[in-house]
User: Fold this.
Amino acid sequence: MPAYTMPGLMTGQNTNDIVKKLVELERRPIKRWETENEYSKAQVQIWGEVKNLTTNLQTKSRALVSFTAPFATKSVSSSEEGVITGEASRAAKSGNRALEITEMASKHQLSGVAVDTDIRIPEGSFTIYSGKSKETVTFPGGGLSELTNAIKNMAGGLAETSIIKIDKDSSILTVTSVKTGKKNELQFSDPNGILKLAGLVGENQATSEDTKQLLSLDTLKSKVWEPTKFKKSETETEKLVQTEEGISIKPDTAFAVPIAVTEIKERAFVEVEILGEAPAVMELGIGFEKEGSVRNKFLPITKTESKYIFPAGDYASDKNLTTIILSNAATTPVLIKSVTLVTPPAPGTAEPLKVLQEGKDLKIKIDGVEITRETNDSIADVLEGISFNVHKVTEKPVTLKIHVDHAKGSLLIKEWVDAYNELMKFSKEVTSVEKNGKISDKKESDDSKSADISRDFWDNKSKSGILAGENAILRLIASLKTTANSYYPATKENGFRVLTDIGISTGAVGSNWEKIQDGLLQIDQERLIAVLSENPDGVRDLFASDPNNDAKMEEGVGIRLLEILKPYNQYASGIVTSKVKLLEESVAGNNKKIKEHESHLISFEAKLKQRFLYMEQGVGKNKSVGNYLQNNMFRGNGGE
Assistant:
């Protein structure tokens, strides 16, 4: 008897459809796992955004608690626009000062006389001086263009040159100092007559000799210098000893010895001559008058033959020398033969032919006191904590204003509030709950829609936040609110204890209660600017303070926030990292289950089809037997 292979032929049922429905019913766990995976992947993205927002708030909080936070940054301006600009540090004192600019610093400008444009100048060398600097230019020979190029390449830091064509046959060479100020005027030494041929200077003069002034040291009025370093100085028997040969300085002693007041010229130096053995390096110094007080300069000097050369003009040019400081760190006495102030001659030996503009110093008056400087820019040694640039002469006194620049601090706080609000708003959205939603996991009666977890459950999940009920985020929201509304110790006088003191709140008085409950911060800009202008240090202490004076910031809104956020963003064991890891492991586990169950479905479907085939074959056999019996019985009855 042949096997019946056409499904439903014998039973009259669509067995393929039955098998398909049974397989779909068996597939339900895969649908559930796939749904769980989609939900887990969405949660991973949400946790990633939580990490981004918490990290952003961490960054903004660190900026607020940093020692370099610009709350007390000050700015400099003048009552007349364009006179002065500058910057002020925290050390600068706020207030107004009377200011008058009587003369601007200017560059030294020189002009030569007209020479033949095609002049050929032989090779040679010359030296250019400006202030304490000098450059020797080696000229290979050539015309005016080659000369200007040589100056540019070898002395470009001191002088700028140009050629002006008078007519088709004549040209003039001009030279301008790079630096402003009287001391930076240009001087020239022209032994080979190169600059003279170019029409810039006159005859080169012979160099004059140094001017030497022997200084008389009053050893009887000497005073001990740095006794903590030179410990034997205060011993009565270790005083300076004046002999016929000179002054003897005993070991481990140092003294400041007065002299008759003497002016120190530019490039002048103090020459200390020694008799006999002396250390290779000796510490020497000078005392000089500056701005109404005595200043000292003390430094190690290397011995040259039997002399020590102290460059006094480098530190006290045009100041009055009042004291010579002598020391001996050696183990044997040092005998000083003489102390001489040496003033070299002016370096220039060739005078410029034409001066278009003299080098001038800046002259300013602050509170009626006249001050001169070589430059108009970056003047940082006049007022404490202030660096300023001068741009023009004033026709009358103006006001120099030094005040707190609240713009940087205000921007920093605004960025912090924005970061706080973004995290708070996002956290509330992802943990929101659909109040009218019903969560159930009962089976559906309709097999075509049934699953292990009901549609109501997933529908409600889509209506609520994807992290609804997540304790880690709910704790974060509560901690943020508590931190923003807490009181903090005020470590300074007139300090601030709560954010509302500086104009940051969850809403003004009379605001909607629901909005206040949201916990989002608002800034009263007018109030914030006022407190930043009046008490910037108090604002900074509200975010980070050191109540124990142990040089460690322990209190404040910013410090508290950093402590709260730290567990969320730790790289290896942070809350966010752990949550993402668990979700990824869940997805990987479900994928494994799905793969195994799909393999099961293949064999399950094959078994169902085999069983229905056996059933079809059985029904077919039964029908064949029935027909056989019926036919035989019919024949038997007919035969009777």
